[in-house]
Amino acid sequence: MYLSYLLVALSFQSALSTTCPRRCSCDPAQSVQCYRATEIPREIPFTTRRLYISHSKIKQLQFTDFRRMSVLEELVLLCSGTESIENNTFKALSTLKSLELCKNQLKQIPTFLPSGLEILRLTDNSINALHASDFAGLMKLRVLDLRNNLIATLPPSAFSSLYNLQSLILDGNNMESVSAPLRLPRLKYLSMADNKLNSFPTNFFASFQSLHFLSLTGNFLTKVPLDLPKSLLSLKLEKNQLKMVRLRDVKHLENLSEFLLSENQLTSIDGAQLLPNLTTLELSKNQLHTVPLRLPSRLQKLDCSNNLIQRVTAQDFQGLQDLKHLFLDNNAVSTFEAGALQPCAQLSNLALEQNLLSSIPLRQVNLRTADTLARLDLKGNDIEDVGEQELKDLKQLQVLNLRNNKISLLDRKVLEYLPRLRHLYLDGNPWNCTCDLLRTRRALVAKGTDVRGGQCAAPAQSRGESWMSSKKILQQCEDNLSSMERGKEDRRKMKPNEASSVGVNTDDDYYDYELD
Ligand SMILES: *[C@@H]1O[C@H](CO)[C@@H](O)[C@H](O)[C@H]1NC(C)=O
Ligand SMILES: *[C@@H]1O[C@H](CO)[C@@H](O)[C@H](O)[C@H]1NC(C)=O
Ligand SMILES: *[C@@H]1O[C@H](CO)[C@@H](O)[C@H](O)[C@H]1NC(C)=O
Ligand SMILES: *[C@@H]1O[C@H](CO)[C@@H](O)[C@H](O)[C@H]1NC(C)=O
Ligand SMILES: *[C@@H]1O[C@H](CO)[C@@H](O)[C@H](O)[C@H]1NC(C)=O
């Protein structure tokens, strides 16, 4: 960041040194950037519309600093150790629309802000209280971002002018409670993540008639607040202490599309079908023993990873014809009833890693599912056999992760069903490196699939070799390959050092699969 300022500064300095202050760069679009200043530079052109100052040491802002900048629209003062601001410093800036004073040491909201202000960001300061007059007259303010300060309460009177406020961000403060309702009729986005809130008074949300997005992630809530506004599209309640969610209490959220409940203490959830427009439901890191019952039919993403689910039944995904992303990883699933995925005709991403599966649960999938599944993760299960039946017709499969299972054989024919396979993860399996496996190797090379791992556990003379790249195995099997087959392999010219690139990513959390 700092370096790029420096470079910009240097390149402009020579050309414009007569009109531009030291340690600043001025561009023709009337914007000025300064760094390492110890005061607001005096010589900033009066025609400046945008002023960016960062990484400076400006302890106090004074009334005289901006007095003559009569067309200033945007002022950013970042990382400059600013502690205080004189009364009226910004008052006369009638064209100022956006003021950002982030990462400083301000203890209060600057006073007498100009009434045309639309955006005010004061993130990462030490503001510990809001006062009734702080935002007085800011009828045009749309965005107020106060994240990462020390605010403990919200006095309703402080917000009474903010009739047009659309976005209020209070993440990372010290709020333990909020009192009477705030009247912010145009508010669309409210985020109070990472505070210490444990409940809301009745009617707190009643006046937010336009709210679309609400985040209360990272608080101490034990209940879903009542009276949430009907207009909500997204509700984030992750990292709280919810033990139960009564869907009856939120069923008025008829347009809710995203409901995030990960990292709570939920043991079950039932009745999500009451939210007809729900497309995303996240329940990761709870204590669910089963897949939630009665899910809404428009669901596209269901995340039940990191729970205690042991069994997936044929009814679990009934009616979920739009489901695209299903995360059941890090559970204890040992039983996955045949046909359970039959209804999911759009499934593209199936995460089943770190369970107790002994086979690939795709025996009776919808033919259309076979046409959409792009990523299948089975890492860390107890799978021994990879049969044609399970992977049949997965025409779109691009990523198959079989790492850390008990697979010793992989029939070349299985690959014929996977025309688009690009990434195959095989390490952590006890491969039996027979000459048959060499045919599979050839098929993979021909496809251009990127294969990770594949160390032989047997036979004894091949132990430790990697069957995708070993020359030794190739020689051992020489007699078993027809001359035609051998020719193919030679022409492809396996690089001798491929062995060393194989298995570089042995990190179990390696998750970086790109899909088309
Ligand atoms: C700044 O304004 C506030 C509020 O009007 C007032 O209480 C305070 O005394 C003023 N400070 C100075 C230094 O004038
Ligand atoms: C739900 O969405 C529809 C369509 O966008 C809209 O007409 C309706 O007013 C919304 N309902 C609520 C309660 O906001
Ligand atoms: C929510 O669902 C209802 C009924 O299915 C529908 O009329 C409405 O348009 C949906 N709202 C949105 C935003 O999709
Ligand atoms: C490897 O495969 C061969 C041939 O199918 C078989 O005879 C042998 O027992 C297998 N070895 C192991 C360890 O499974
Ligand atoms: C090659 O095939 C013959 C039988 O066709 C078998 O006896 C021999 O063990 C095979 N060699 C290897 C290395 O698998």
Fraction in helix: 10-25%
CATH architecture level-2 label of one domain: Alpha-Beta Horseshoe
Task: Report how far apart the termini are.
Answer: 32 Å
How many DSSP E strands?
26
CATH classification, class level of one domain: Alpha Beta
Fraction of residues in β-strands: 15-25%
The low-pLDDT segments are 6-18, 490-514
Number of helices: 8
The CATH homologous superfamily of one domain is called Ribonuclease Inhibitor
Class of secondary structure makeup: alpha/beta
Form type: elongated
Biggest sheet, open or closed, and with what strands and sense?
20 strands, mixed
Q: Provide the gyration radius in Å.
A: 30 Å
List each distinct ligand once: 2-acetamido-2-deoxy-beta-D-glucopyranose
Mean pLDDT: 87
The CATH topology name of one domain reads Leucine-rich repeat, LRR (right-handed beta-alpha superhelix)
Protein name: NEPN protein
Keywords: Leucine-rich repeat, Repeat, Signal
Pfam family, one: LRR_8
Organism: Urocynchramus pylzowi
